Structure formats: C-alpha cells, structure tokens
Recover the amino acids of this structure.
C-alpha cells in the first residue's frame, strides 16, 4: 500500500475497535497485514466512501459491508493500491535480455525447437511491469525467431486492472524511463485531446491478458509459467501469508522456471524448492 498525504477534515473518527475489525477483515480476505501506522490512511480512503454512501460512521460502513457482499470489491480496491513504474529494478530486465534469452536460444537451437514463453506478472497493479516485460521481450526476440511470449497480468484490485487494460500512460511516466528505441516500436504518442499521453500498440497488447486474482486464494490456472514476477508485494504479508503466496506461485511455475521478487524482499524459510541465481532471482528445481 502506498503512502499518501491526508488532508481531509474528518466528520467521523475511526475507533480502534472498528480499525481492528477492518484490518482483520483485509487480512482474512487478501492476506494483507496492516499495522497501527496505517489507521489514518485507512480512515481517509474509507471516509470518501462513507460520504458517497451517506453513512453516519465507520460502524455503519462495517454493517454495510456485512450486508452487501459486492461492497467487498470496493473495500479491497481502496486498500490495495500499490505504486509501480516502468523499468523498476532494471537489473531484472537486463538479466533476461543479456543472459536468460541468449542461453535459452542456444538450447533451442541445439534441440531444433522453438518456444513460447509464458510469463506471469502476479501483482501487476496499473500495468507498468506487464508492459515493460512486453516491450523488452518484443525487442529481444526480434533477434531470436525461435522464441515468442505471452504475458498474464493479475491483481486483486479491479480498479487498477481497468487502468492497466487501457494501456494509456501519461508522458511523464514514459519519457526518460522507456528507452527511445523501444518506445518507438512499442508506443503511440497521443494527439489532440490525448496529447501528453502514450498508448501501447495493439500488436503488443494482443500478447497480454489481464484478470483479477487473489494471491491468497485457492484458484489455480491450467497454465504452467516459465517466468513469474511477484515484486515488492511480499512486504505486505506476514510470514504465514508469504508461505501461502509462494506456495501458490510455485504450483504454477515450471521446473527450472524463474521467480523474481523485489530487491528489498527475501524468501527465508520458504525457498526449499528454489535456488537463488541472482539478487532477487530464483530458479525452481
């Protein structure tokens, strides 16, 4: 969860009792562990909803949540917005470009084989990581015709997924971040009312699918993935949550597949099927 400036004048106070109920609820549903420092942030995000629903306090909102199951989607969306950027932790993309893909191509050439890489961005937020992967792989495989790719982007937050699906981003998020040669073949510059924005080209978007997914849930995909990114997400889970999330991800990762986590994260105690091959990069064995 990102931090944000809070300047609302609250008509209602979030009591410790109601805060504890709501933070226990998001833990049960999504596995997110919120500490006491997040109380003001929770208050600000739910306060807007109280006004919208014309409720008389957080206790009424809890009752509304209990009586209206569809409200759970809004509640999850309000508390799970994460900051992301194009080319965040660029070392990971450099490793894929300069080591992983050339070695894979050599292996495929020896086998007289080809491969479509299945890639999963498991907490993709507004899509910057997904499109960075797509732009990078699209550029890389132009030199390796035996290799193609498909990407799945998932998040528990439906609001950020809707933004990701558009593939439209403000100029300041793109310029000085996406390399010029890659931007030229991957992005369309907006004009008129869309000036100041870039859009991902449709031929690139055709290789990507987005859908909602709860990392703590029981749902399983039929697909086995070659590469899974779950970066800067584990910091929001306790050790029990991390164990479950990693277990879910590994059940979808092929043997010899790669798992990428954030550089500030670790897998101590849950890495018995993994070997670290680079900083924050693990191979399943």
């Amino acid at each position: 969860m990102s931090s944000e400036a809070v300047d609302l004048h609250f008509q209602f106070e979030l009591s410790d009792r109601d805060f504890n109920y709501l933070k226990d609820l998001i833990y049960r549903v999504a596995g997110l562990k919120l500490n006491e420092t997040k109380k003001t942030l929770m208050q600000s995000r739910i306060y807007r909803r109280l006004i919208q629903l014309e409720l008389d306090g957080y206790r009424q909102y809890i009752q509304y949540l209990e009586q209206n199951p569809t409200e759970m989607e809004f509640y999850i969306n309000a508390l799970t917005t994460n900051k992301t950027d194009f080319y965040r932790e660029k070392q990971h993309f450099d490793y894929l470009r300069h080591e992983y893909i050339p070695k894979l191509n050599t292996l495929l050439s020896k086998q007289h084989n080809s491969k479509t890489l299945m890639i999963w961005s498991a907490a993709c937020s507004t899509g910057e990581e997904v499109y960075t992967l797509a732009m990078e792989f699209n550029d890389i495989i132009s030199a390796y015709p035996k290799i193609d790719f498909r990407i799945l982007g998932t998040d528990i937050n439906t609001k950020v997924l809707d933004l990701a699906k558009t593939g439209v981003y403000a100029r300041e998020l793109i310029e000085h971040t996406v390399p010029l040669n890659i931007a030229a073949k991957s992005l369309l510059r907006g004009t008129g009312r869309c000036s100041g924005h870039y859009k991902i080209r449709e031929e690139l978007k055709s290789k990507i699918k987005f859908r909602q997914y709860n990392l703590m849930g029981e749902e399983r995909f039929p697909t086995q993935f070659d590469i899974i990114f779950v970066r800067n997400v584990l910091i929001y889970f306790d050790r029990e949550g991390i164990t479950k999330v990693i277990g879910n991800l590994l059940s979808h990762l092929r043997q010899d597949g790669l798992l990428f986590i954030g550089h500030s994260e670790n897998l101590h105690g849950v890495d018995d099927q993994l070997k670290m091959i680079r900083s924050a990069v693990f191979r399943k064995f």
